[in-house]
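Customer ticket, subject: "Can you confirm the structure for Lipid A biosynthesis lauroyl acyltransferase (EC)?"

Message body: Hello, I'm evaluating your service for our small team and ran a test protein. I'd like someone to confirm that this is what the system normally returns, since I don't have a reference to compare against.
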Amino acid sequence: MSSLSRGRFLHPRYWLIWFGLGVLWVLTKLPWRFAMGFGTFLGKALFPFLGSRRLISCINLQIAFPELTDSERKKLNLQHFISLLQGIIDSALSWWGSARKVKALTTTEGLHHLEKALAGDKGVILLSAHFSSLELGGRMLSDLMPEQIFHAVYRPHQNPLLEDLVAKLRGDRYGKAIPKDNIKDMVRSLRKGIPVWYAPDQGYLGKASLDVDFFGEAAATNAGTARLAKMTGAVVIPFFSFRAPDGKGYVLRLLPPLENFPSDSIEDDTRRINEVLEEQIREFPEQYLWMHKRYKKAGYDFYGRYAENHDVSGC
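Agent reply: Thanks for trying us out. I re-ran your input and got the following:
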């Protein structure tokens, strides 16, 4: 941060955030299992008080997993909120955790797919998604390939302190942090052969939006991946990070490049990306960002109407 920024962020309105950041920093220095246990405690403690977000998450889970009973879905919803709180600690670990600690917690799958792609003459889009360990995934990958530059696309924070801090941390770690609306910078990076880490899976009503099925329900979906690949000739490699199911750290997963991508149909390409994402979500359902309004609809409140027309009493 600049000296000007440091002075501005000493205002009392930021003191609670500084306190929270201090707690997160301390947690990264404590044993990992203790930190995850603390995340579990907070998730369970806060779950009853997050009514609106809990409802959004529950509706998303009803759409995605209609085969579950109400009790199974409520349990999954609780596990989701625990995962979110653990994910905040994961983010702190990506910013301040030691390389030795992060490496000891990482199990890698499919790194050779990226290594092979980087050996070619095309750019690489690291296609990611909003799982709760998303931020840590970039850190794990950069630690595995310290000589490789990665540019990270991110959504700017509304809070100016967090925006300043996270943008700086990402810039220091990856070489450059690109705001999600800066398409020109993404194209420049890819044409220079610099991999771009891109997670376009949140609900999106912009010009590049298409209504594409996501777990059987049409969702406003960012079609930017196919457009970026077409403009730059970049290879698309799905890239995910998860908390391991055995409670022993994290899985960093890189899948084979998408073949024949992009095709002649941007709708088919976007649907294909959603199918890849659905497959990963089904394996780690509690770790996906369900409290986000994924099923946005232009012109009306999808979630309000859904609650009016469906039984959400179990939420």
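A couple of notes from the result: The mean pLDDT is 91. Strands lie at 106-109, 124-127, 150-154, 175-179, 196-198, 209-214, 217-222, 235-243, 250-254. Feel free to reply with more questions.
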